[in-house]
Amino acid sequence: MEYRNLGNSGLQVPVLSLGTGTFGGTNEFFQRWGQTDEKEAARLIDICLERGINFFDTANVYSIGDSEIVLGKALKGKRDKSIVSTKATFQMGEHPNEKGSSRYHLMNALEDSLKRLNTDYMDLYLMHGFDRNTPVEETLRTLDNMVKSGKVRYIGCSNFASWQLMKSLSVSERLNLEKYIVYQGYYSLIGRDYEQELMPLLEDQNMGLMVWSPLGWGRLTGKIKRGMEMKDGRIKSGGAIGSPPVEDEFLFNVVDVLEKISNEIGKSIPQIAINWLLRKKTVSNIVIGARNEKQLLSNIESVGWNLSEEHLDQLNKISEQTPIYPHWVGDR
Question: Is 62 a catalytic residue?
Fold first, then answer.
């Protein structure tokens, strides 16, 4: 397994981590992702650890806490061998203060996550989204205190716009507070918006990217192809709800090239899509998901080889997106 620094830190992490959105599956939205129970989760974690993947990513909102509970139980006796990240910000209850990035909510959210995960510290604590209703200074001072207390080791953020991230980094620098070391964001062959604003920012600020949904919300699994009836899976079961938008013809064009390369090199469509990401600047880690052992083992095989320059060029061209303003103005 290849290891890289997690963004702007000295922490070495495997290039793949296991996302646990499928763990629990106890509410309607997350049931479409999967319903992995404690026994199944423990087996998936053992497979990861045997292959050098010791990084596990969850969030308090996944099945409203049940993903953290399942992960915590599955990691019993293995916590000291593992790196764990969780997230907070999104709605966890009906009360107005059960969401956001206020000091009130984050302090409660962290304690709740630690209890559910059965641990006394978090390796990486991420803001799941930007809270426009809370001063950035309040959020960052709270996170800084968490690091100083020893309950959090590193902090990061997810789903921020570029200006929101840059403002946060600037405030941290001005007030001498802990900085976000890594950004968790959506990036895939059918979703390259990240490259236009966020990637240059992360490169400039020496941050890293944790990729979520590297297979385009399940659209790059090989189950969706031109002129073929959709096979059973996350999308067919209604899992497209809340997913990044993509036009069918664009998707089919990308999958056509993926299938062509797959036939040439003997790798699966998902393995090629993940390997393409591993060659991209700023990528520290890719969060892979798996409903079962077979999917996990297949996704792990994305590492240990490299696409040729010719194949990279083919994929880059077919998946290229029109730049947004002002990036199409002049030679930038």
Answer: yes
How many Å apart are CA 219 and CA 196, to the nearest integer? 22
Query: Mean pLDDT lowest for which of 25-29, 78-82, 97-101, 145-149?
Result: 25-29
Q: For tokens 């920012």, name the residue.
A: 201
Q: Which long-range contacts (C-beta less than 8 Å, at least 24 apart) are formed by 33-37?
A: 33/234, 33/239, 33/289, 34/289, 34/291, 36/70, 36/291, 37/70
Is 181 in contact with 157 (CB distance < 8 Å)? no
Contact in structure between 197 and 162 (CB atoms under 8 Å): yes
Residue 292 neighbours by CB under 8 Å, 6+ apart: 40
Cis preceding-peptide flag for 326 (omega within 30 of 0): yes
- How does pLDDT run across 267-307, given as a tens digit for each residue? 999 999 999 999 999 999 999 998 899 999 999 999 999 99
- Burial class of 147 by CB neighbour count within 10 A (0 to 12, 13 to 18, 19+): middle
The confidence score (pLDDT) of residue 5 equals 98
Residues 167-177 have a mean pLDDT of 98
Beta strands 283-288 and 208-212: pairing type?
parallel
Please report the beta strands in 145-296, taking only residues with DSSP state E, as ranges in sequence order.
152-158, 180-186, 208-212, 283-288
Q: Which of 62, 180, 187, 194 is catalytic?
A: 62
Query: Which among 165, 164, 168 is positioned nearest to 141, based on CA atoms?
Result: 168
Q: Is the pTM higher than 0.90? A: yes
In this structure, what are the phi and psi dihedrals at residue 293, rounded to the nearest 5 degrees? Answer: -60, -40
Confidence of residue 308 (pLDDT cuts 50, 70, 90): very high
3-class secondary-structure state, position 211? strand
pLDDT of the residue at 67: 95
Residues 110, 115: Cα–Cα separation, whole Å? 9
Q: Which residues contact 88 (CB under 8 A, 6 or more apart)?
A: 59, 60, 101, 105, 106, 109, 110, 113, 125, 126, 127, 128
Q: Is residue 11 classed exposed, middle or buried when 0-12, 13-18 and 19+ CB atoms within 10 A define those classes?
A: buried
Closest C-alpha among 238, 244, 247, 242 to residue 215: 244
Residue 320 phi, psi (nearest 5): -60, 140
